[in-house]
Amino acid sequence: MQILTLGNELLRQKADKVNKIDTDLTKTIQQMFTILKDGKGVGLAGPQIGLLKRIFVVSIADDIPRVFINPVIIETSTETLKYEEGCLSIPGVWADVIRPKQITVQALNEKGRPFTLEAGGILARVILHEYDHLEGKLFIDRLSEAKQKRIFAKFDKKAKA
User: Fold this and answer.
1) pLDDT number for residue 76
2) Collapsing DSSP states into helix, strand and coil, what is residue 85?
3) What span, in angstroms and rounded, lies between the C-alpha atoms of 77 and 160?
4) How far is CA 18 from CA 25, 39, 51, 60, in A?
5) Active-site residue among 9, 79, 130, 145?
6) CATH number listed for the domain at residues 9-160
7) Which H, E and C letters describe 13-38, residue by residue?
8) Cα→Cα distances 143→49, 82, 97, 105, Å
9) What pTM, to 2 d.p., does this model score?
10) Does residue 90 surpass a pLDDT of 70?
11) 75 tagged catalytic
């Protein structure tokens, strides 16, 4: 299992609903947390590893590791916050992104139990970032066209090096 990077068409596809939580999915979740830790990231979505399923994991310092299966963002605040984001699928690229400051999300955990979470700050941002991956979107899609062009050029240059 490896992290797909910018240019891989799977990153632009919408993920399908998870229909069954079984031992294979549990193993995948464990592998996702390992990849996340090795990559020094804070979130990882199924599409980033070629799994077109609606699942992501989040592990932020000072918070418990979390699994989100079939998540739905049910509310976002009107108040927004600009913060620098990066992505394991676009290594070495960072940019300021504006996102809602607070969210409410519903999902299933790794045992298939439903939960609702109200989140703010960095946790809300990471959830929204990973949720975007499930929709076939990348954080750079939230930037101006000029910034996107600079990022593509920078990424292409790094990929060729």
Assistant:
1) 97
2) strand
3) 41
4) 9, 25, 10, 24
5) 130
6) 3.90.45.10
7) CCCECCCCCCHHHHHHHHHHHHHHHH
8) 24, 12, 7, 24
9) 0.94
10) yes
11) no
